[in-house]
Amino acid sequence: xxxxxxxxxxxxxxxxxxxxxxxxxxxxxxxxxxxxxxxxxxxxxxxxxxxxxxxxxxxxxxxxxxxxxxxxxxxxxxxxxxxxxxxxxxxxxxxxxxxxxxxxxxxxxxxxxxxxxxxxxxxxxxxxxxxxxxxxxxxxxxxxxxxxxxxxxxxxxxxxxxxxxxxxxxxxxxxxxxxxxxxxxxxxxxxxxxxxxxxxxxxxxxxxxxxxxxxxxxxxxxxxxxxxxxxxxxxxxxxxxxxxxxxxxxxxxxxxxxxxxxxxxxxxxxxxxxx
Length: 275
Fold this sequence. Notes:
Blueprint: H1 9-14, E1 21-24, E2 27-30, E3 33-34, H2 35-38, H3 44-53, H4 59-71, H5 80-89, H6 94-104, H7 113-131, H8 135-149, H9 167-179, H10 186-199, H11 209-219, H12 224-247
Antiparallel strand pairs: 1-2, 2-3
Helix pairs in contact: 4-9, 4-11, 4-12, 5-6, 5-12, 6-12, 7-8, 7-10, 7-11, 7-12, 8-10, 9-11, 10-11
């Protein structure tokens, strides 16, 4: 007969073991720091870095991360995530449901370009290192390969802005961090090389916010999927603001089209049912 024993106390407490937070009656430590020592001294972006990366950020890390997140907070109600949250807010789901609705729309196509661009820049840098080739050469090959496949190049060009207004200011901050030795600048050079290669074609799409924030995250050593998480955190601010504004508008059950407009019908014409 098989002797089956249940989990021990040690097994149970180890089930959700974590290196992030220690709690005990009257005590909360974040990565080993008592929370009462952090409140009022560590900024919110610093707390994000501490919890996700496991250490206190340097001034440069905090400055660049905050700049990237501020750049990503909102892009108006035409963004699907914002529109989704606003519609949900008129349906009585509550502010948390409206925010969740907006966040859940952030997928590979809407919200995923930053992660994809971090992956792209890291691949260019890694290939250049491995092959001992100039990053400009690898970037040009990458652009040519994407163009040959007619593939989307994440982080470059914008469907609305001829030149993304967030690009230049973030680029300046990264360049300053490179000049002071706070970041290496390899991923910045890769992104600029991609941009230069694109400029030699008929279309000359500059970096957009996903591209320049990808430079920030890659220079900070942020893993690609975590970079998407940072974008989601940042965009949640805009989602919250729009959901709250809409919830106070007084309109109920607001659909995607203003009444009396209706979506075009492209199906069969109305006909009698002969059963």
